[in-house]
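Team,

Forwarding the record for the chain on the shared tracking sheet. I've put the sequence and predicted structure together so nobody has to dig through attachments.
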Amino acid sequence: DEDDAQSQKFLTNGIMKKKKYEEEEYHPGHTSFGMSVFNLSNAIMGSGILGLSFAMANTGIILFVILLLGVAILSLYSVHLLLVTAKEGGSLIYEKLGERAFGWPGKMAAFGSITLQNIGAMSSYLFIVKYELPEVIRAFLRLEENSGEWYLNGNYAVVLVSIGIILPLSLLKNLGYLGYTSGFSLSCMVFFLGVLIYKKTILPCPLPFFYQHESNMSVNGSEDMCTPKYFVFNSQTAYTLPILAFAFVCHPEVLPIYSELKDRSRRKMQTVSNLSILAMLVMYLLSALFGYLTFYDHVEAELLHTFTKVYKFDTMLLLVRLAVLTAVTLTVPIVLFFFIITILYYFMFFYFNFFIITILYYVMFFVFYLIKFYLQAAIFLVVGIFFMIGSLSLIILDWIHNPPGSKGAH
C-alpha cells in the first residue's frame, strides 16, 4: 500500500505540475526525424558489433538469434517506459525525474549511474582507437613491426583524436549538427558489412590458418570445421551474454534526443526508437552471421583481428579498419551530449556545483595517471576540460545578458 501511495503521488504530482514543468524546460527542437534516427542508431551501434561473430560461434545461430531478438524487444519496451516516465514526471532530464521520484538521492543516483555507463562506453570506443589506429597507420606505411615513432603510440593517438575530433564535435550547439556525423558513421559500418559479405564469398573454407590450430586434420575434420552450428553450450557461452546484453544500450541518449526532436511527441520518438533498433538488429544479424560463416569456431573475440591472420596488408581490409575507427570515434560525441544536457541543467541553478565536478574530474585524471591507466586518465582530462570551458562560458554569457544587480541576475 505504501509503494502504491508513493507511486500515485509521483504520477499525480507530474500531472498537476505538468504545465509548470513544461514552461520551465520547454524549448523547440531543431533536429529532424531522419537526423534523430541517425543519432539514436549511432548511439546504439558500438564496438560490440565486432564481437557478435564470436558470440554466435559460442551460442549457435538459432540461440544467438533468439537472444538478440529478446534483447531488442526488451530495449524497445524500456524505451517506451522511459518516454511514459518523462511524460508523467513532466521532465526530459533524467536527474529531475530521479529527484521528483526519490528526492536528492534519486537525482544523484541518476547522474552517477548514467555517468558511469557513459564513461564505460567511451572507454570501449577509445580502447579501439588506442589499439587499432597505430596498427592501421603501421599497415598503411608497410611496416612489419612497430618502430617506436610517436605516431605509432596508442596513448598519443587517443589524446590527439579526443582533442582534435571528439571535443569539437561535443561542443556543437545541438544534436541536429551531429546527425551528419552520425549518418557518416553509419555509412562506415555499412561499408564494413558490405566488405564482410564480399570476403565471405571469395574466401575458401577451411582457411589455411585453420590448419595451424589442428595438427592432424582429416578430410572429414575439415568438413566439420565448415559446418555451422545452431545450438552451442560451452565454457565461453557465458562470456557472450554481456556482449548481447549491451548490444542495444542507448537509454542515456533517448531523452536528450527526444528533447531535440523537431515537433516532438511521444509517438514520434517511439517511431524513431523502433526504426533505429530495427536497423541495428538487421545490421547486427548480418555482421554476426557472415563473420561466423567465414571463420566458424576460429573467429576471435575481435573480428578484425581474425582477418589480419588472413590478410596482412590488404587494402580493402585496411579501409574497413579505418571505417570502423571512424565510426566508433564519431559515436563518442553522441555519448558526451548527455554531459552537455547535465551541464545546462545544473548551471541554470547551481554554478558552484560545476566547479566541484570539474575539480573531481581533474582529481580522477591525476589518480589514473599516477597508476599508469593512461587511457582513463585521458578521458577524465578531456571531460574535465570540457566542464571547465562550459562553466566559464556559461557564467560569462549570463553576466553579459544579466549584469550583477539587474533583475534577472542569479
